[in-house]
Fold each of these.
Amino acid sequence: MKSNSKQDLSLDLKTLPCHVGIIMDGNGRWAKKRLMNRVKGHEKGTQTVRSIVTACTELGIGILTLYAFSTENWARPKHEVKALMMLLKKFIVSEREEFLTNNIRVNVIGQKHKLPLDVQAEVNTTMDMTRSNDRLLLNLALSYGSREEITNAVTQIVEKIASNELDVRDITQDLISDHLYTRSMPDPDLIIRTSGEYRLSNFLLWQAAYSEIYISNTLWPDFSKEEFIEILKNFQARDRRFGKVKCNTSNGG
Ligand code: FPP
């Protein structure tokens, strides 16, 4: 057996990514392959969400950000948007006990105010109920778009400058980060996209500056805990230099 074969690598629980983002893509294609309605793909995709959330809790990953509904997804056919909103609401309500038992905090990034009122109400209840949990932060990106997030941050900063709360000289990268939906969270170390597309699709564009990207060919409904673990091992084998060169401090270099 080759020394670098998959079986030889074990997951190092001490060097897991702190923050993993996932672009859950391929629900529609999964359904189409089975001559099913696209909504069936989203339903099966919700089961995958459950298993990956559980995997993150078991492994000890601190933050999981799931791209569940983008600002662009509002343009999908009305019945698909309605079905997705219903699935989200069902998930957020049915998993509450699980979130509390497993010490999971739920948060939403995105235009929460644009969600249907009944979805907003359940999201707010789940966020409030789980506020003090600290094992896993589950960030659901809902009506989320990175360009909207950055535009919103710029607007807030300009308003603060206009009211003398801030000075132009206060603008730094940290200040901008502090006005994003992800304020006070570390940037994602790893972003996974399923279904073989090589795009970020308006997901965490600012925060992804130094994220490792992994593209899986698996359609989201077929994505498994086993593949997730293989991707984490792949992440651990990467050399992250953040634009710098590695220096060997032991010989003074
Ligand atoms: C992309 O697949 C997926 C979405 C737009 C929605 C993701 C939603 C879920 C996984 C289920 C609900 C989420 C939660 C958190 C409970 P696509 O429809 O664009 O697939 P395609 O590219 O194959 O058409």
Amino acid sequence: MIGIFDSGVGGLTVVKAIRERIPDHDLIYFGDTARTPYGIKSAETVVEYAIENINFLVNHGAVIIVMACNTASSLAFEYARERFSIPIFEVVTPAVELALKISRRLRFGVIGTRATVQSGVYEKKIIENNPEAKIFSIACPLLVPLVEEGWLRKPETAMIVKKYLHRLKIRQIDTLLLGCTHYPLIKALIQRKIGKHVGIVDSSICVAEHLEKYLQNQFDRAHLLRKNGILRLFVSDITHQFEQMAKLTLKENVKLENASV
Ligand code: DGL
């Protein structure tokens, strides 16, 4: 099975993108709803949670892991890679690769949680690839709770998005990286507020493409992956709100299972 985790509903945007590309593959998802959000926590705590989440998924049969969370990808990927011997995917690198491909003027905006932005991982990876690039990053700590709450079309959310993006607009970015897997759920709003001339990079789609290519070309233990199109959804706290958001995100009926890590 392919194991995927996030702090909450955001990682389901990755699940959806993966299911669109490789619908047969059995997936197991863990949403750490009891401990969300991750983006305002310390690096030590995020690393600890990420390791626990991976252990949970491995104990339930995962042989590949996708960190469907920019915060965990930014802070815990290196630790996880050292600790586990199975392939682990993170969401930052595939998004950076696409952003560098599509940008015309190398002026990048990055929006993400406070922890992701403070980690500086996007700047580092972009500059490593192209030292000429200009990167402007904004932490948007209010967006995760708004998305978890389902306030996707509320005028208050639109106002907050506009306020955050103003600082990127005046920098005349040409490419905007959605550095949090919750943000694809308000992608249309973000596009409206940043302007249609700005290209948006959605890490959930990028990581799904990487995973598909990896499975086709490199994974030598494909016999360990089951292909019955099954999706198991575990959360550390089952709530009606999460169930509603999961249905809305995946556009299918969901059955949540309780898990403690
Ligand atoms: N969706 C996650 C991310 O990509 C986590 C957000 C949070 O829990 O703060 O960063």
